[in-house]
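Q: Fold this one first, please.
A: Sequence and structure below.
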Amino acid sequence: MKNIRTDLAIEAREMYSEDKKVEIPGVKVDRKEEKNYTVTRIEIFDEKGREIMGKEKGIYVTIESNILTFDDDESRTEVINVLLEELSKILGNDKNKKTLIIGLGNWNITSDALGPKTVSRVLVTRHLFKTYNKEYDDDLSEVSALSPGVMGITGIETSETVKALVDMIKPDRVIAVDALASRKLERVNSTIQISTAGISPGAGIGNIRKALNEEYLKVPVIAIGVPTVVDAATLTSDVIDMTLDNLINESKKGKEFYNMLKSLKQEEKYNLIKDILEPYNKNVIVTPKDIDEIIDNLSVIISEALNKCLHPGIN
């Protein structure tokens, strides 16, 4: 299961269930389905669940919606409100808490620019609190934000930059926004994950750096991410599945053979395709062609939800 690249807890759970047909021990799952979206809350609460899932202990909330990529006001507002509701459950409504928002990723690569774009739209207020020597405000909370870049640009580990900043300004919590990777094409740009377990910068493309979590930063870390890429092996596996579904539906002969191919486990198909692609260096990372507009829209959704959650005076 761990051979398939995914940053989503919901997909790690699905891969285990595909093999075992049972729920994972040490993991609690709640699911809510509405007309335009589905919210799945997964809590990993012991070491058994952590080991099986390959994810750290904590809460993982996944919002899935086909209207996430819609750029009309009605769809955007609906998704913002859903995200706001889930963020409020995790962040609470304590206006005295100081928040540092980190936009992870490379602003020069569109599919990895979700973090920096979101940070550019966040309402920062720390300078106002310092200027007017305020500890509390009815409408605003103290928020600071930074896009630290990636090591290829700065020469500095992102975790080192964030750690130094946390030690200096002493926030009560850190919110990290980043682009993720999915194992399913259908979830790319149509899923938001909120996690209380922190995040590993670069994990989405297999370039894992030191994790940003409470153990390292000494403050709670909430991660918000959207899968913006899949690798070529995942994409190929999905295309094969769609082709087999079509052949099964249309063929009068050979259905048993097609069903046999369809019955292969996801990991078996993935590893088979990956083994074929990698000798030719073809297991590339894939993202949709309209990623520019999608990232822009997603950054608006996440920043607006954060602004409303952290600043109760905003309407």
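Q: Good. Now the second chain.
A: Here it is, same layout.
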Amino acid sequence: MDMQYETVIGLEVHVELATKTKIFCACSTEFGGEPNTHTCPVCTGMPGSLPVLNKRVVEYAMAVGLATNCEITRQCKFDRKNYFYPDNPQNYQISQLYLPICHDGYLEIETAGNKKRIGIHEIHMEEDAGKLIHDEWEESSLIDYNRSGVPLIEIVSEPDMRSGDEVIAYLEKLRLLIQYLGASDCKLQEGSMRADVNISVREVGEERLGTRTEMKNLNSFKAIRRAIEGETRRQIERIESGNKVIKETRRWDDNKELSYPMRSKEDAKDYRYFPEPDLVPIIISEEWIEKVKRNQPEFHDEKMIRYKKEYDIPEYDISILTSSKKLADLFETTVAICKKPKKVSNWLMVEAMRLLNEREMEPEELSFSAVHLADLIELVEKKEITGTVAKEVFELIFSEDIDPKSYVEKNGLKTVKDENKLKEIIKAVIEKNPQSVADYKSGKKKAIGYLVGQVMKEMKGKADPSSVNDILFNELEEI
């Protein structure tokens, strides 16, 4: 009988916080600056420089901890983790080992209709390292310290996940929660959210954990899922061939769908942790915790319940609109202006999502104003522009956030309501298309659709379709 295995998975998720300045200095955290321009003596580890803690980092960490049902450590402190690596300018990292700011929390996930609670062992604050850039042509490595000192929280789960589906559900829920808090944009492609996956396998029914490996270099949910599947297969093959799984850190190559050993965990060096001497302990009062609690936003699950009560829109629309804080905010603000939730939902769900997909953009990149979308909806509702014109104008709102009222006026795009002009165009179209007229007269009523299309083409989409239909019908009946 073949042995049955189960996969046991725990995650270490690093999240770059959305502070304007770094954790221990006033340098910018903005992504994408020229190398080594967002630096100072503190974040480049110059002798004699002293760290000063950014209060906003503590508040963001507390906010994420409260949202994940964690206990907040009332007196926590920083520790010094000593190791040498070129992207680590001080030869140590300031982190939290002994008294992390948050501990013993959980997130509830749902997969295939089943709910499950994933434990969170701890959340701690630390500073990010710099970035090594390897030049293969010159056979050298360059260091960019812009990222050095960017504030991180590390969210360490319990080994409670059993499949790639559960891991993705956990990460998606965690990312959405942090985005709603405004604590981070959680862009995996920019490294502001990074996950290391600890994987082991064991026989079904066995209580003891198997030997785990840690998978690194995972920068997308697809890569994480593939890495879990690939590493699970590799460990099972080793066990069934009589070999032992070695406790080690492995690097995942998503192109080859293979992992490679990076370093052994068995002989990992001692980091010689000790309390950070340059920073005082953090005392967190009940008043401070209450203040952070009061500032917590309405989260995704709560929004979904409220949308069902307040707005007469489909549940599918609600799930998509609330899946991004940017989309949800845009929806709510537009509805507050124009009082037409169904219309707003339609524009966001159809046209906005279409353009996002075409341009390979995330909803968080939407930059147009709710006022301009509300104005566009008003123009359509008052029949001042046609649906065709509205779609063209929306593309410009999406791209350039133009004022639709001014644009329509300036470019003469208002719906033509002059019946004499419409009749003139319709008669000309009837004369040019005798076959379609003959088809209509012989009982093929669908032929009128072609004629309407020709009229709209002549009018460049600026005619009201219902008016065109009425006048065209009358003209054809008189023939």
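Q: Anything worth noting on the second one?
A: The CA atoms of residues 42 and 49 lie 5 Å apart.
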